[in-house]
Amino acid sequence: MRLAAELPHRSDDAYYGIVHCVLAPSFNECGYLIIIEDETMSELPIIGAALLVEEMPVHRDWYLEKPRDLEIQSFINADVLIGDWKPMAEEIKKQLDGHQGRLGIHGPFWGFTIDTPDPDVRTVVQKRLDQALDVCEFLGADQVVIHSPFTTWSHNHLDDGFNGREEITENTHLTLAPAIRRAENMGVTFVIENIEDINPFERLKLADSFNSSAVAVSIDTGHAHYAHGNTGAAPVDHFVHAAANRLQHVHLQDADGYADRHWATGDGTVNWKAVFAALKQYDSNPRLILEMRDHNDIKKSMKYLEAVGLGQ
């Protein structure tokens, strides 16, 4: 046991977290709550979040209190990347002052797939990825989330020879090759996120085919749960086991298995205990990023994860 903290005695709900393993609560002479907590609390994974620039001030105290990983999602749209994004990036840097966690961005994805067979479209995609790396360089970010090319349709045609596994892999290599070379020199990693993926091993094979430290995999729990509920995929924890130590990023969001909900953790039917038990078996230390439809649900998600002893 140890003295965990001295927190102001507050009757409101201003804090994100709730107290775990409180063994001997008391108040000191200044009205501060003295909490004695079990050592296991310090071993829980630290949870981060995906945020837009305008959401950062709302959560700044929270993401500065611990070394929380952040994912900035203000650069996914083409109109941002082709415009003057530096004033916004300067504001992000201002909001990051004092941040101790790891920093990444969500890369662009609207209007294209990374396995496009069209050489003209491929040129545009390569430009967008290069712009995303420009943002990383400016912000000091070292991870970019990109979307998997595997679809529900392609799942049953991977071995047909027509737009199958080999063609998807070849086209993805043609698209990503310049960005990966640059990312390797920058120390940036592209993490491929499951979208419609049914077989979690296909994305892993694709990432491994680059034989590069600049390519790894990501899991979106809600996407995996959707695939489990609708298209016959395994449960979410199986996606974790498939990725194993190649997993470097996780979008944490709850859902009902019917659609991509991005609900607060605990509001859907994802088996969170199984997911975190699976994560605990590997040592790749992925960034655990709350990705909420409503950023105000970050607070609600944290309360749930702390209450069930899964994160801090």
Describe the model.
- The relative contact order is 0.13.
- The longest helix is centred in the middle third of the chain and has 22 residues.
- The strands form two sheets. The protein has an eight-stranded parallel β-barrel with strand order 4-5-6-7-8-9-10-11, surrounded by five helices.
- Helix 4 runs parallel beside helix 6 and helix 9 packs parallel to helix 10.
- The protein contains eleven helices and eleven strands.
- The chain folds into two domains: 43 residues, no CATH class; 254 residues, TIM Barrel, CATH 3.20.20.150.
- With 312 residues, the protein is α/β, with parallel strands linked by helices.
- This is Sugar phosphate isomerase/epimerase.
Write the layout of secondary structure elements.
Layout: E1 2-8, E2 26-27, E3 32-37, E4 48-51, H1 56-65, E5 70-72, H2 78-81, H3 86-95, E6 103-106, H4 119-139, E7 143-147, H5 152-155, H6 165-186, E8 189-193, H7 200-209, E9 215-220, H8 221-230, H9 236-243, E10 247-252, H10 272-279, E11 287-290, H11 297-307
Parallel strand pairs: 4-5, 4-11, 5-6, 6-7, 7-8, 8-9, 9-10, 10-11
Antiparallel strand pairs: 1-3, 2-3
In short:
The longest helix is centred in the middle third of the chain and has 22 residues, at 165-186.
Largest sheet, spatial ordering of strands: 4-5-6-7-8-9-10-11
Tell me the strand percentage band. 15-25%
Low-confidence stretches: 1-39
Number of helices: 11
In the residues, how many domains can be counted? 2
- The residue fraction in helices comes out at 25-40%
**Helix and strand run:** EEEEHEHHEHEHHEHEHHEHEH
**Main sheet: strands, sense, barrel:** 8 strands, parallel, barrel
Instruction: Please tell me the overall pLDDT.
Output: 89
CATH superfamily of the largest domain: Divalent-metal-dependent TIM barrel enzymes
In CATH terms, what is the fold-level topology of the largest domain? TIM Barrel
Would you identify the CATH architecture of the largest domain? Alpha-Beta Barrel
Number of strands: 11
- Provide the structure class: alpha/beta
CATH class of the largest domain: Alpha Beta
- Shape, per Cα inertia axes: globular
